[in-house]
Every structure is written in C-alpha cells, then in structure tokens.
Design brief:
This protein has a single domain, classed as Orthogonal Bundle (Arc Repressor Mutant, subunit A). It is built from four helices and no strands. α2 crosses α3. The longest helix is centred in the middle third of the chain and has 22 residues. It is elongated. The N and C termini lie far apart (about 35 Å).
Amino acid sequence: MTCRELVEFLMDYLDGQLSEPERLRFEEHLGECPDCVAYLATYREAVRLGKKAFMLQGPLPREAKAEPKDSVLAVQVRVGGG
C-alpha cells in the first residue's frame, strides 16, 4: 500500500469498514511508514476537536459526516464564516 492509498482508505479504516486483507495491508503500511502514523494521529485529533467544537453548538450536521474538507466547509457556514 502506498501513502496515497492509505489516505484514500482512511475513513473506511476508522469506521471499521475495510475487509480483513485491506485492513492488514493498511496496518502493515503503518508499521513501515512513520509519516502515515503521524498523519493518522493528526487526523484522529482533528476529528476529535471538530466533534468537540460541534458539541458546543448542538448535534453534528449531516455534512460533518462526509469528507473532511466538506466538514470544514460545513463548520464555516454554520458559524458564519462562509
């Protein structure tokens, strides 16, 4: 698995939606690539902080469950920044 493929599979991995062989390839890549380990940790933290910010304003809008860039846009619109 390449770094680019890891990013493409990230949401499915976090949601537990990868097949067993895909999950093993994903985790094997993590075992060999410290950059992707750091990316995964940063991504998880961004999701955690995003959820925390939304909880201060009520339940998550449907858009926040989509792609990360869509979530950022939803936050901007919701708080009047876009």
